[in-house]
Structure formats: C-alpha cells, structure tokens
C-alpha cells in the first residue's frame, strides 16, 4: 500500500545534489509530490524537503542516500503519524485555548499528551477536552528544582515538542539543552524589539504604531532563539498597555498555532540561529 | 565565462521529471542556484523554474532536454538581458511614475522603449526621463482603428511586454490576441469584485471595509485574465469614493510594479486561466 | 455611584449638533470619556457615539436631548450590562469555538444564551462550556417551517444579537425581517466577490491571490447586507480549494469575533446599506 | 467667502472641553466638518482637531477660546496653504523619488523648496522636477560645522518641515533642537528593533520573518524620537541582507510619504515622546 513520507536532507552544498537525491527517489519508484530546496549562499549549506509517495524500503533507501550524499549530510524520513506534544502554561488561556480548539476540530495533526501549569488556573479548561492537566507549582522551589520536576513529568510523555503557551517563567539552561530545537515559545512582541518582561508596557511607553508576536525555538539566551514565525497588528495612541495586551492575544495565538503546525508538518530546518522553512 | 540563465519547463506530469532535468543540468556542469517546481494535481501538469550558472551549450542542452522530456514539454532558457516594455497610459501618473522612478534608480531590470498615451497629459513626465512619448488619440477613430494604430506603434519597438499603467480603454480582441500573455494590466479593485468601470464608486456604494488592486494579464473577457498579484488596504465609513481612489493609488502602483518585476524575472507561468509563480 | 453608559445619536446633519449634545452632557455633569462623530456628506446625516461617566438621570437627560435635537433624531443610551446572543451553527466548529473560547477567558463581554444547530454535530463542544445546545433539524421541513422553529427557540432567550457562526442555510425573508440589524453572519469570502455557495471553490477557479472573510448583518438579499468587517490572507497557486478553505478558517473566526465585539460594544451604526463604526 | 481651517487644541483635561470649544465654533457660525478628540488618561491631557468651514474672525475667535480654555491650552488655527519642506538626502533615490513624484501628480499638498544632499548623486533627479538641489559635502568638516552649513541653507527657505529622505548621517543636538518636532526621518527598520546602522544586516543576522520601516520625528536620542508611522513586510530565509534592503524600499518610501502627508495635513500632535494622530 502506498505511504506518504517526508524526506529531510541538509548538508554542505555541492553540485548535483538535487539530481542525486531525486534520482534515488526515482530508482525507488517514489513519486515526488512536492519538493522544496534552498541553498544558503553565505554558509554554503543545502536544504531539501521532499514529500514522497510510494512503498518505502527504508533500509536500502537510506543506504543509497548515505552512499551518494556528502558524509556530513543529515537525512531524516518522517511519516504521517501524529506527533506528541506537552504544553506548558501559566494562567492565560488564549494560546492554550486555540491549540485545544484547533486540535478538537482537526486543524492540527497532533496528540496533546498533557498540559502542565505552574498554576492550577487552566485545569478546568484542559479537562473539558479530556486531556490530563498537571499543576507543578514553583513555590518554595529553586528554578532548577522546579525545572527538574517539569522535565520529569514531560519525559513521562516522551513528546516530540514542548509548547510554551504563555508559560511565564524563564527555563534554566539545563532544561533547554535537554530539548534542543524542541521547545517552541510565543513571545508577545515583535522580537528583537522588547525582549524580556512586560513587552506591551514597553511598547506602550515607546509609542509604537505596530505590535506583534514571535514564535521561536528556545535557546539559552533570553528571547534569542531561532524565529519561526512573526505577525503584527496596528495600534495607535488610543491603546493603553492593557488594550495592546488584549489586542495582541489574537495575533499571539495565531502565530503560535501556525508555528506549531509548521513544526508538526516537518517544514522547519534549524541551522545556526535561524530557521529555514520549506 | 560563467553565465546565468533561467530554465523554464512545463509539461504533463510524469515520474522522475525533477531527476531527469536536474541530471541534464548536472551533466552539462550547470550549477543550480535556485530551483522551484510545482505539480498541479488537478490538471496533472508539472512546472519547474531553475536558475542555472555555468557555460551554456544551448543546442546540446536543448537536445538532451527534448530527448528526455515528454513530447509536449515547453522548454525555455532565458538570459539576464534586459527585457523591453512599452507602457500605455491615459492621464493618471501614479503607476507610470512608479515604473519610471524604479527604473531610474535601478529597481527594475527593464528597458522602457516608449510610452504611448491616448491623451498627451503625461508627455512631460515621460520626457523628463529621456523616454519617447507618443500621443495616439482615439478621437474620431473606431476602437479597432485606434487599437491598430497602437499596435503598429508598439510593434516598432518589439517589446517583450506591454504594460497598461492605468490605460482607461478596453482593448479589442484582435489586439489582445496579438500579444498573448504579454499585456499586463492594473485593475483598481480586488478582482473579481467590482469588474468594469468605476470600481471605487462601486466599492463605496457597497460599503466595503477593504479595497484593493489586481495586476493581471489581459485576455478577451473584461477583467477576467490570469491574476498575477493582488493587494489590499483597509478603508472605513469616512472614505468617499474619491478618498478611496486616492488611497488606492499606492496599492495600485505597488502591485503593478511588483507584477511587472515578476514578469521581467521570468517567474510567471500562465496555465489555463491562472498564473503559477515560481 | 458613577456609572458608564454610551450615548448613540444619529440625525440629519445640522449646525451645532456636537455643541448641543456635549452641552447637555456637561449640564448633567456627565464626563465624556471618548467621543466620536461622523457626518456623511452624501446623505447629510450625523452620527455620534459618546462614552459617558457620571450619575444618570435618564428621564431628564432624554428630555433635554429631545428638545434640543432635530425631531427625527435617534437617541439611545446603553449601559455596560452583558448583551445576550444566540448562535446558529451547522457542522463547522472554528467560528463557534473561537466565540466559546473567548467568552470563556473573558475576551468577549457577552452571555451566550444558547447554541442552535441544524445538525447535532457540535452539541458536545457546546456542552463542554455549560451552554445549552438545541438541535433543530431541517429534515422534512420547508424553509419557512424550519425558520419558524428556529425563531420560536431563539425568542425564548430574547437575545440582543443572533450570530450565524457558519450556519450554512439561507434564512427566509420573514425570519430576517424579524431581527433587523441583529443577525450577524460570517461569509467565507471577500464580499462582494464570490457571493453564494462554495466561495473557496470559486476563488480557486478564478485563481485569486488573496482570499478573505466578511462579517455582515443579514438583510434580504443574499450576501448583500451591511458589511461590518473584512479581512484577507494571501494564497498562491499551491492552494487547492480545500487548502484555501482550511487557511480561511483563522480569518473567518477572527473577523466574526471582532465584528461581534463591535456590536457588543455598541460601536456600529447601520445606515442605509452601510455600517458606520465609531 | 467660506474658508476652511483646522483648529488644533491641547490642554490638561477638564470637564466640558468639547462643549466649550464647539460652542465657540457655533457662536462664530463655523461649521464643523470633522472633529476628533482624544484624552490621554495617563497624563490627563486633552487633544482635539476640528476641521472648520466658515468666515473666520481670528482675533475674536482666539479671544473667545483663550477666555474659555485653561490657561495652559495650546491653540492653533491653520489654513489650507501649502506647507514648505526642505528634503535632505544622501545617495538613495527611492524615498526622495516617491515624494517628488507624488508632489508632481498632486498627491501631496506641499511646496518642495529645496533638496540638499551631502553627495551630488541625486542632483539630476531633483532638477528634472525643476527643484533646486544643493550639494553640501561633509568632507573635511566636523559634524557641527557641516550641520551649521545645512542649517544655514535650510533657513534660507524657512521650511515648515525638514524631511530626511534616507539622509545617512546623524545630526548633532544643536541642529535637532533648532527644529523641534519639525524634522521627519525614515528609519529602515521596525523601531525599536535594530536601532543604529545597517538595520537590514542586523535583521538578516537575527533571522527575523518580518522587516519594517519607521517614520519618526528626530530628537536627541538616536532613533528614539516620537514615532509617526510604521509598516512591515514579510521576509523569509531566502532573503539576504541585500534582498531585504531592496524589498524594504517600497515600505520605506510609502511610510515616509504617508507620515509626511499626516504632518502636512496637521493631523499630528506630539506629546512627551509620542504622537497622537487625529
């Protein structure tokens, strides 16, 4: 029976890479549904995402690819199985709510294994959708201790991605390194403007005419990780900081959901501190 | 010496087309700078645009492609030479002005061979930039007669594209058929809303909250040709039809300039009544 | 104790109207928090929305206004009480889900009295939020009979507005006249493009580069009622009609929620076939 | 004969200000065409912009206003006369070109008194439009000396506003203080992201997905002055820093032209470090 899989290849650029890879696909009688490639001319690195349909003999397919491609090539083949996520939250419902709702009506191809809050506020919302909610309070814990409890609970579910849906605490480096390019955060500003706390207050004080939201992978510099998606809305002098915060909710939730969808669809390559989205 | 050329291929879809074409490029030692392909699953048609760098032996390259590709394949190889355009105008300066200005500062890779107006209004603007202006009035002429005079003048310059920069007359079918997929028009609405005359008045009367502009190739149904690009701006109850018209100028000029740039960069395939932009 | 209310005035334009109204507010020691006015110079009609704070003696306030304003003036004073809505749905969850979720986290100042579906599909979603769901099937009923059942159920809840959150049936004129300027619909296209059924299919066939959604009040011409809000997203040749439909969900739900918020905030005047949003 | 003028009032907020001002307008038989007001609740400051039509007795009108308004009120009455600007440039033509072209076809209500460049590059473009161009080179001059030469030349023309249309030098504090809230700059980023030099290079290195432009008044902190207008465009991983720079031109020129139009239309109040646009 025909299966669909996505082949993700990246390696130092060389002549003939597209021909090499597509030849092997053709040899294996795999039909190319979509193909996107990109060469970063600065770093001379090659990226290709190939949607394939056919009968996969993964072992020989990989052998053929390994033989033909440069030694340093990264090659992955991913199927259509649902990916699993764990969501971290604090008190705000809008980003979580959008993911729960989209998952409910089938707009996200994902299994939400669990939601973990450092407050109990969102339990009842999560449980409406039959998803387990765990409250792991940070009270009387050091940051490292709290993060270890989070990690222990997260690892029970072996998620593909961890989604910070307005989780309002900074995660310590050890936690971040445990899940490289697997923690997706929504920052409620148009990064790199207004890094850190209270970005809407900062935006208000600066008198900007546009505010935004940024979904990015977490790395160990605050709000400096690879950006996946950004979007903005217009504001004007009539917006207080609080009005900006309210108006920003829709753009925050939409940007996070779309960034998550890109990750779930295996469309994101992370290279150095940037994303290539194919 | 290394040259850069764009290979444009389209044909009925078949297995292995990307491999076939990229193999031939590789055999000819042509480096692929960018490659974009698209398969329209409804019509089962394949499109590919490949930016190549190398030393081109066009004859053997085409022979190899012809042998390997399906019989019905369209294959074109275009160089980086400036394309030539003739611009048709009536009285409004904004779209013409943007093209003249962008060409002046090098943002459009084009030779403006001539501007033809059915009024003399824009002569002085055109001549500032050292470009010949011809007034071909429609007075006392039938539409067919007038269009024949236009075509005769246009053909003196053998342009690649004819740009209707707010040329406010409908061209007759004979004229249109003379230049298939080579006449680019800007329509001052978000097509297919407000086809025909006075779209801003129509938009005002309908009370829309967004207005737009549409760049499209001309075919023989009024405002029905393949759409290249569209963009919109927000309006509200404070806009009169005239205020909409004024506000629409910036979006009209930007959409037309960008559509023209796509055409000049050989990024547009026209297939049936749609554009595929790679 | 200080109350906040919104004064909504519209009447044929005359000199001194702003002074007249604001004088009366001042005389009643009502503080003006925000004031917006608009004169439609075509129809010579005046609109003003005034947010007031103070202690309201409504009877004398209205007497003063009636005496001072033209005889034909419409004057309303509305408080901050939650408005009540009934939502009509068919099978699609995204618009309903957004309203339910926003109401859950307090982003909409509304009481959702009931949801009525012509299918039972969305019962479980609605009941999660503790809101009554009624299935009123249209099977074996004429349109008029079905609409009468709907109206009877709706009237039990005496809603301020009826929200068609992807209710996929046309309502008959009698129903529409029963609730003038009180039925808010989301149409899944950028009206007036693609009126009627299957707009995404129409958009796909036309090859547009932008799709949109339109929230409007229902009147008795299909998709011709006063437009409240519109928004758009970019698409390209890679979008099938179904992909457009999926991509359109986020813009549909956002446009409907925002239009509803405008109605709930008493910011919309309907005049002839247009909205004035102050 | 009826004249049109704009009344601009700002003062500490107090009860009855709208009534007070509109009463005086009414008493003077001045018809209010448009009125916009705003109260900043944080600073308790009141702003109102009133478009008036009638026969103006400015002396008694101002006397009446002075008597009725708080002592600290700022009151200005501006007519429809064209304002005068001087434009400063370096080598890039796109922002200058858009202003020249819009002025040519009547889309900006302005007299361009002169263009001054610190290079001679743009002379021929400016002179095409019959506008005087002055090259004031900064070679062998200190910043202060150069700015003094600029100011001396500018002052010959007594401009209402000075427009920095990609003038790529920082102006010294003395120069800036000479023209408070009268120098409009276009910064080629979405401020406060990427302050300072080479913002597109910074944006490229950070891997942002949106770039923008910001028009603002100059004050004495680099890129910190009151923001008038911002706009953005989407970019992705395929954009080099240079491609971003090219793509940014259209948004830069549009934002600057629109900000200038707001200034020319007397729609901007500057208060503390923000703009209120009515």
Automatic annotation (TrEMBL), chains A, B, C, D:
EC number(s) given by UniProt: 3.5.1.10
GO BP: 'de novo' IMP biosynthetic process; one-carbon metabolic process
GO molecular function: formyltetrahydrofolate deformylase activity
Gene3D superfamilies with a match to the protein in the record: 3.30.70.260, Formyl transferase, N-terminal domain (3.40.50.170)
InterPro entries from the UniProt entry: ACT-like_dom_sf (IPR045865), ACT_dom (IPR002912), Formyl-FH4-Hydrolase_C (IPR041729), Formyl_transf_N (IPR002376), Formyl_transf_N_sf (IPR036477), PurU (IPR004810), PurU_ACT (IPR044074)
Catalytic activity, as annotated: (6R)-10-formyltetrahydrofolate + H2O = (6S)-5,6,7,8-tetrahydrofolate + formate + H(+)
Protein name according to UniProt: Formyltetrahydrofolate deformylase
Gene source species: Psittacicella gerlachiana
